[in-house]
Amino acid sequence: MASDSYRTLEQAVGELRTSKAGKGAAAAGGRSERDSLMAGRSGEGGYGASVPPGGAAAEMSAAAMEQAQLSQERSHDATLAELEEGLGDLEQVARGIGNEASYQIAVIDDTTEKTRRADASLRERSREIVRIMQTSNVCWMYIVILVLLAALVLLLATASF
Fold it and tell me: For the chain, what are the domain ranges?
């Protein structure tokens, strides 16, 4: 985009140099192109000896420069519009990411709370299991003691006869 306006500006300057060089060489009577372009610098009517200041070439130069400037401004405006559109899209993406992050944080917090509750429940159940195992061991001991006592009574009863 910027290169298009630069090319337009180069074309305008090239046309201006061509038109001035042709007129300047004819008026200078064999001087070089550079000499004829620079001849007006000392007060002979601008940058071309045969072109008076404010003449057709100067107006064309100003018009070409204005056209090039307008073209460049349009190019910049188009670039800025694209940039603005891209920033708008980027803003929407950023908002979407923010919303998704907020949702994921809520999910993580909920999962953390459920994990804490499950952990507390598991610890309580583990304590209950240990308590039951301890009481059931005592129960088995009582059963073993009763069986051994019954066997002792049976042995004593059979030995006395």
Answer: 2-160
